[in-house]
Amino acid sequence: MHEIPYNAHINFDSGVIDDAQVTERRLSDMAAFYHDQEAVQRLLDDDPVLYRVYYIAQEAGSPSLWNTGVSVIEPGRVGDEYIMTKGHYHLNPEAPEVYLTLSGTGRLVLQTRQGEAKVLAMTPGAMNYIPGEWAHRTVNVGDEPLVFFAVWPSDAGYDYDTIAERGFARLVIAGDDGPQLIDNPAFIPES
Ligand code: S6P
Ligand code: ZN
């Protein structure tokens, strides 16, 4: 595989990478991922964009080729749940990932198929290491967009189905005193 050096520019405030590809997720793309379905129905008419991912992908297939990207998660809530990503396992459990928060305030929710769970803080400068076997979801708990850079091997792949079917063990919701971590009553463990 012939790799070509590249130079890209990230706007640290908006998260936009010039000339990158973009994936846009609206509420309708992920309605089932939120636990308050009445709140989802109330918001579906407007169908807001919840997050965008600007990315530069290498050809899939080799762990030595890395994809890079910036995710921009909008602030706000769906019911008492903060706006968040779908979350996924990598299909390749040997493909890890690194996140670097550029702006905003978030939580990185992690779990393994064996039932271990962790939640890490995301504030500007936070560097989060995600081992290959850990599912990962980011949650914007602040009032401004959560913007973070990510780098991951091009052979990682995405398993969204497990999360769609079983959910995450922990949810980040808005409590009286700010973000609060609760057990997800609808979570279905794998083991
Ligand atoms: C890719 C990496 C991120 C996410 C992005 C959106 O491995 O973890 O670029 O794709 O934050 O999240 P999701 O769960 O919708 O892909
Ligand atoms: Zn990932």
Q: What this model shows, in words?
A:
The chain has 191 residues and is mainly beta. Helices cover 7% and strands 39% of the residues. It contains 2 helices and 13 strands, in the order βαββββββββββαββ. The strands form 4 sheets. It has a 6-stranded antiparallel sheet, with no helix packed on it. A 3-stranded antiparallel sheet has the order 8-7-10, with no helix packed on it. The longest helix has 7 residues. The model has no long low-confidence stretch (mean pLDDT 96). The chain binds D-sorbitol-6-phosphate (S6P) and zinc ion. Zinc ion (ZN) binds next to loops.
Helices and strands in order, then pairings?
Layout: E1 21-26, H1 37-43, E2 49-56, E3 66-73, E4 77-78, E5 81-82, E6 97-103, E7 106-111, E8 117-122, E9 127-130, E10 135-140, E11 146-153, H2 161-166, E12 170-175, E13 178-183
Antiparallel strand pairs: 1-2, 2-3, 3-11, 4-5, 6-9, 6-11, 7-8, 7-10, 12-13
Which key terms come to mind for this protein?
191 residues, mainly beta, 6-stranded antiparallel β-sheet, 3-stranded antiparallel β-sheet, 2 helices, globular, binds D-sorbitol-6-phosphate, binds zinc ion
